[in-house]
Amino acid sequence: xxxxxxxxxxxxxxxxxxxxxxxxxxxxxxxxxxxxxxxxxxxxxxxxxxxxxxxxxxxxxxxxxxxxxxxxxxxxxxxxxxxxxxxxxxxxxxxxxxxxxxxxxxxxxxxxxxxxxxxxxxxxxxxxxxxxxxxxxxxxxxxxxxxxxxxxxxxxxxxxxxxxxxxxxxxxxxxxxxxxxxxxxxxxxxxxxxxxxxxxxxxxxxxxxxxxxxxxxxxxxxxxxxxxxxxxxxxxxxxxxxxxxxxxxxxxxxxxxxxxxxxxxxxxxxxxxxxxxxxxxxxxxxxxxxxxxxxxxxxxxxxxxxxxxxxxxxxxxxxxxxxxxxxxxxxxxxxxxxxxxxxxxxxxxxxxxxxxxxxxxxxxxxxxxxxxxxxxxxxxxxxxxxxxxxxxxxxxxxxxxxxxxxxxxxxxxxxxxxxxxxxxxxxxxxxxxxxxxxxxxxxxxxxxxxxxxxxxxxxxxxxxxxxxxxxxxxxxxxxxxxxxxxxxxxxxxxxxxxxxxxxxxxxxxxxxxxxxxxxxxxxxxxxxxxxxxxxxxxxxxxxxxxxxxxxxxxxxxxxxxxxxxxxxxxxxxxxxxxxxxxxxxxxxxxxx
Length: 592
Description:
There is one protein chain. The protein is of the alpha+beta class. The protein folds into five domains: 8-60 and 440-504, no CATH class; 83-106 and 241-299, no CATH class; 113-228, no CATH class; 302-436 and 512-554, Ribonuclease H-like superfamily/Ribonuclease H (Nucleotidyltransferase, domain 5); 562-591, no CATH class. Helix content is 42%, strand content 15%. The protein is built from 19 helices and 16 strands. It has helices spanning 8-11, 15-24, 67-99, 141-147, 167-181, 243-254, 260-271, 277-299, 302-312, 335-344, 389-402, 421-428, 438-449, 453-463, 468-481, 483-490, 514-522, 531-554, 562-574; strands at 153-154, 163-164, 185-190, 194-199, 207-211, 219-225, 227-228, 317-323, 326-333, 348-355, 363-370, 376-384, 412-415, 433-436, 579-582, 588-591. The strands form four sheets. A seven-stranded mixed β-sheet has the order 8-9-12-11-10-13-14, sandwiched between helices. A five-stranded antiparallel β-sheet has the order 2-6-5-4-3. A hairpin with a 7-residue loop joins β4 and β5.
């Protein structure tokens, strides 16, 4: 970005002088000359004053703020807010735990320190390790019920001869039992070959004993007394932080920014148990570690995933590359999407990249078109380890092959001026018309001159000028307010973001990259998932979207698409004050 410092003489320079000065300056390595565009500015024109509420002067600068674009921006803002709040909450709790000298090991094989040690001997077991209390078997259940006090209750979760894989699985079932019933227990024996458990209430007779039978490999319940005489509790010490991710892992996957208070509320509402914020903090850390393991596993399955996509349709394009046996990048373009784009979409492509939210980073590069209804139509996407000129060139080369073009002739490419992207487009698609998102230009402009209402209004008037004459008038108005601001805009490659200098080849006058913005919001909830899960979410979501859009268009009894019809009706209303008169030969003059 060029910095402009104007002298007093320069402050009084005319608009034409400013243009000439901008043409001689170097900006983004591009030729900023207007060419023949301003050779007609000396002709008088009629300028219509449009009410402020009819032009989008907000900082987003979208041409058509339909519900889809508004929802996309709302999702982005909400996601950014949740991400910041979640990160701040984890940092704050982590600092507090450090101050309190609280240490924890999320890799421990035991649920808490009390599980590590068990009594060396128990007074209620015989020489074979069985509890001496008479067993509660199925045969005497009826007689036992007759002896139970009306305030007691019988648990039927366990039964004698019930089998478990090992002691670990048995302990997990004990903890789940405590959570379901709101009871606390203690281990009378805790060994890999035998486990004894009784209710922590000394007045309660509930107890269970399980061990490995002789010449067997499974774990089996030997003795069980399932009568509780104690009441339900809302705090159970056997419920540790490891129990939470085991039961709420799917929630952590779908919402990695879940707040600690949401975790405690979920446990209370679903199980009637109170857990501390510190336990929720440790549970969240443990859950994220478990998810990381799934991320790593799915990267090892990418080769099979790519083979399955190709097997399902040989016309699908799938490119999968490794670098020293480590994932490098993957390109995906489904046959139905490229066929649909070539058959019914404008030759207008928005390209953009977005970050992954997972532990291994990476970026998703996407190419999005506009369908006949002027809405998002995804074409292709790629997963890359880093965004640079080389990765963009690779992506654009494969995209050109799928779209049957060698130099991009006839296509218009809209981008956000990402790192290395403009250079890659110029090299791989040299004949394509390049545009840059006016909204991102405004963001950079705002960093220098601020985001006041006056600057914002004049910027979008300039960006949405439809003729060179109107462009000159709007720049003159900004120059009258701030010559420095006008000079700054003239040095920002205006031919690529001002509507007055667009060619008509793509039949699209968009000045911002909102189609890519809609796509990024469309996959927002998938970007933090493991890679194959994310790619499948994208595929399934697009499939469902195309089905809904097809049914929507079929339900309309219109000669043209609904959004085009809507724009036509607005144009009719705007043209009511104009008159047409014969101008000689084959021309018609329009005047107010």
